[in-house]
Structure to design on (475 residues):
């Protein structure tokens, strides 16, 4: 979790931007919710390229004190520092790239105190086309980073090309699975030119730069289970707060990124943010899905397309149900409505628990489940307005305290979940009885996000044992 400048600032980067953003991340309580990485994307270099020793150099007008001073500043504030390069002769914005300079550049990153490298794939000199060619190109940097002795997270950014989901895990910590996100929920665009449903789409000549939230969700569906701790599918940075989507669309976008275990990099300007954006990105009950210690993504158990679903303004009409197991035995369930009208959605326990056995054979179907709505305790606008408007950091921290704000630096999500901290569990809104069906009305272009919690019934048995003696993960 962290922040990256690209979505809102593009090439307009500077020391001032990074340090004023990091201060604000602290005072708004976001660092302590887990947004720990501050990532400097493309365009940080001087335009003249490498120096006479072959080393990359920061642009002195953007970074007058160099990069080590930024990384020291961020570390002092409790952040980790991320930077950017490309496995090509140039970066995507045409600054010097790291291809064939991996050792030099890895040493520079280590000497600047970098904790994470986002590693792009522009201008790759044709070294692409089979998984092995791409694997080798990226592995050179992975090895060079390792050789520095500094622990540097590696985030591959080759937009899903050459089946990165099949080899990214071996050399990196995350890999982008699609072209760049843009600030739209469903709008198709020629600049996102792949078929989201076909991972090996031979006509995908352009993963692109205008991929909608729905496109990315459909792209990841077949490989959602590839994310495990230490190696994650990356759905790209967040657009929450940028202005192109509605509040419900942003909530849905954020919820799916969290439950699908994508890295969560905020992409908006933290220093001038609408209250509604703050109350989305600071919902601890949703963040607890992202940070669940089990570390497995929800997967899609149902997708309805067509079937008389009302179409939206882009001709899109579909709805999904996603579900997944959480460490404490709870089940995350998301109803996504990407159609043109509000829908009554429903899903049986048999379908929700398909991963444990299809056709209703999962033992989970035999239990009653309490249904918790994870958006029920969203921070109210007045509190968020007051936090954003507070004159000093002290005032702000008093307001956060008054709002009983969650602090993951003090209490990691794993502990909060184990101790049943109510801030991580939303609100109980009902029960689905054994063999029953979960139902909800879901607005157009919105998601409902639930945590199902098993209700232990007195005297109930499972495989001959009293239910209270069955560990939740035996189920
Ligand atoms: C590519 C990446 C983006 C961003 C830009 C920078 O498009 O996918 O996330 O890093 O390059 O130029």
């Amino acid at each position: 979790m962290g922040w990256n400048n690209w979505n809102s600032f593009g090439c307009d980067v500077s020391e001032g931007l990074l340090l004023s953003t990091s201060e604000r991340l602290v005072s708004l309580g976001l660092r302590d919710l887990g947004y720990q990485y501050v990532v400097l994307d493309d365009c940080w270099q001087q335009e003249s390229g490498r120096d006479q020793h072959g080393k990359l150099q920061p642009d002195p007008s953007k970074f007058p004190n160099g990069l080590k001073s930024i990384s020291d500043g961020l570390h002092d504030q409790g952040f980790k520092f991320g930077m950017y390069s490309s496995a090509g002769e140039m970066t995507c914005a045409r600054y010097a790239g790291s291809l064939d300079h991996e050792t030099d550049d890895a040493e520079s990153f280590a000497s600047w105190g970098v904790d994470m490298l986002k590693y792009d794939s522009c201008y790759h000199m044709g070294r692409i086309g089979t998984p092995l060619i791409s694997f080798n190109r990226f592995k050179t940097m992975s090895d060079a980073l390792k050789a520095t002795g500094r622990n540097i997270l590696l985030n591959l950014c080759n937009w899903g090309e050459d089946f990165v989901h099949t080899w990214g895990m071996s050399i990196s910590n995350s890999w982008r699975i699609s072209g760049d996100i843009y600030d739209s929920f469903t709008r198709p665009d020629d600049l996102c030119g792949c078929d989201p449903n076909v991972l090996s789409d031979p006509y995908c000549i352009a993963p692109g730069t205008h991929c909608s939230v729905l496109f990315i969700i459909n792209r990841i569906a077949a490989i959602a289970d590839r994310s495990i701790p230490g190696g994650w599918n990356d759905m790209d940075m967040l657009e929450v707060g940028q202005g192109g989507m509605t509040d419900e669309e942003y909530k849905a976008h954020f919820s799916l990124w969290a439950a699908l275990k994508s890295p969560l990099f905020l992409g908006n300007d933290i220093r001038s943010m609408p209250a509604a954006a703050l109350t989305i990105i600071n919902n601890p009950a949703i963040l607890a899905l992202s940070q669940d210690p089990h570390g497995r993504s929800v997967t899609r158990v149902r997708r309805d397309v067509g079937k008389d679903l009302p179409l939206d303004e882009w001709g899109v009409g579909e709805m999904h149900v996603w579900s997944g197991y959480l460490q404490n035995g709870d089940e995350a369930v998301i109803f996504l409505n990407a159609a043109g009208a509000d829908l009554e959605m429903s899903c049986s326990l048999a379908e929700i628990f398909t991963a444990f056995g299809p056709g209703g054979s999962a033992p989970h179907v035999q239990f009653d489940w309490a249904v918790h709505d994870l958006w029920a305790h969203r921070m109210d606008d007045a509190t968020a307005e007051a936090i954003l408007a507070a004159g000093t950091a002290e005032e702000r921290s008093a307001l956060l305290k008054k709002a009983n704000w969650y602090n993951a630096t003090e209490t990691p999500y794993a502990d909060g979940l184990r101790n049943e901290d109510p801030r991580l569990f939303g609100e109980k809104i009902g029960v689905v009885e054994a063999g029953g069906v979960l139902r909800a009305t879901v607005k157009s272009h919105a998601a409902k996000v639930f945590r199902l919690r098993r209700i232990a019934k007195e005297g109930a048995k499972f495989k001959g044992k009293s239910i209270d003696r069955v560990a939740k993960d035996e189920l």
